[in-house]
Design goal:
alpha+beta; 2 domains; two-stranded antiparallel sheet; 5 helices; 24% strand
Amino acid sequence: MSIYTLPTSSKIWIYPAKRNFTPEEEIFVSNILNSFISSWQSHGTPVVGAFEILQNRFIVIAADQHFTLPSGCSIDSSVAAIRQIEEKLNVGLLERGNLSYIKNNKIETIAFDAIKPTIHKEELTPNTIIFNNNIEQLEQLENQWQVLASNSWLNRLFVKTKME
């Protein structure tokens, strides 16, 4: 089932990889997540969920909160599925200290500590499109996932970096 068949108010979690998945890796990821989603439960009640692999790099897991509200344990089980993928493919899915952005029509990923130097080199500018992987609802995926850096928390760094 596609995440787009769920209500737009569905809760989402985005896991960015450090690099694109190969076609074989996407099959592996799909097999793991299909198995997980089909048995996902919260306190013994099935969770209506789905997943997508977006742009060959981002795993999005969604849960319809109107059907069953995911609990801490059910969220932990989704993280365990992601951890299983991470351990096999070593793609940094659980590394929250990274920023993904578009440069020359390609997705780049850098560690947070590389952001300021990247701004200094003007490889990351206010007009750079970044991925806001902290959004929480499916409806935000359309308009708030890919945003200009100047419309994100990065904006304060552009001002600060120019003053340094």
